[in-house]
Amino acid sequence: MMGGWGMGWMWIWPTLVVLGLLALVAAAVLWSRGRPTPPRDSSWQDSSSARRILDERYARGEIDEEEYRRRRAQLE
């Protein structure tokens, strides 16, 4: 009836589905590689952050010099 033209295009849908799945997998891989992973030993970041907060509190006058030096010694 169709002269064979209908059967010639039957392969395009499975191909598009496979290409779509490959594109999704590729996007997921790129997305997961784009996110930075935290280092396993982040203790230096914790102390750096605590030191920054302590410095800010001292600069704002929330704690005096004695308290600042005592807490700073505890961080080191």
From TrEMBL:
InterPro entries: SHOCT (IPR018649). It comes from the Bacteria. Residues 50-75 form the SHOCT domain. This is Putative membrane protein (DUF2078).
